[in-house]
Amino acid sequence: MVGCLGNLYDSLQNLDNKYIQPNQKKDTLLKPKSAASVPLLLINNSLVEKQFYKCPNHSDYVTDDPLTHCPISRTYVEPPVENVVASDKGLVKGVVTYMVLDDLVVKPMSTISSITLLNQFSIKDVGVLKEKVVTLGMDEALKLLKTSLQSKSVLTSVFMDNINE
Fold first, then answer.
1. Which of 21-25, 51-55, 77-81 has the highest mean pLDDT?
2. Which Pfam families does this entry report, sorted A to Z (predicted)?
3. Can you give the residue range of the structural domain that contains 147?
4. Is 119 helix (H, G, I), strand (E, B) or coil?
5. Whole-angstrom distance, CA of residue 48 vs CA of residue 78
6. Is 148 within a domain?
7. How open is the CA angle 104-107-112, to the nearest 5 degrees?
8. Rounded to 10 degrees, what is the CA torsion of 163, 116, 80, 63?
């Protein structure tokens, strides 16, 4: 397969069954009967309203957790993990964190897998690493799809071209 889109397929094929919901099978995505039967996106068409809270003296401090005390960080704050209820919808279990590599290989994330990845890329000083928060909307999803058919470094091409933004 051209680009690295095949890595997504291989990642799912190689994913241990312990990460799959008990009532689901990987073959639903790996060997679909028809395109209409593949639940790629579980999108609820109804709008979900989210309520945000601000510190009275700092209007640019925002959270969606009403229990957060001021002062809160200047960036958006997710609610604590214990307030999040895992969904039984979808193929994979919701309590596992996954990492997506530049070539679209997807793996369950753990401390060991992170250290292995740092060793693989010969990263000796973690201070040289940079974090970039990205927004994933329809435009970015289309760029990801197009780039995944043309490149082996999809995430870099789509999200890091404008690193100074």
1. 21-25
2. DUF674
3. 1-14+96-165
4. helix
5. 16
6. yes
7. 130
8. 0
Tell me if 78 is assigned to some domain: no
| pTM exceeds 0.70, yes or no | no
Number of domains in the chain: 1
In a domain? residue 108: yes
Q: Position of tokens 């969904």?
A: 87
Q: Is residue 33 part of a domain?
A: no
User: Who's near 109: CB < 8 A, 6+ residues apart?
Assistant: 96, 97, 98, 99
Nearest alpha-carbon partner for 3 in 98, 136, 99, 104: 104
Closest by CA to 86, choosing from 137, 30, 133, 19, is: 19
Contact partners, residue 45, CB within 8 Å, separation at least 6: none
Helix (H, G, I), strand (E, B) or coil at 95: coil
Q: Which residues contact 81 (CB under 8 A, 6 or more apart)?
A: none
pLDDT per position as a tens digit, 91-145: 787 778 888 888 999 888 888 888 888 898 898 898 888 888 888 889 888 999 9
Tell me the CB-side half-sphere exposure of residue 98, using CA atoms within 13 A. 16
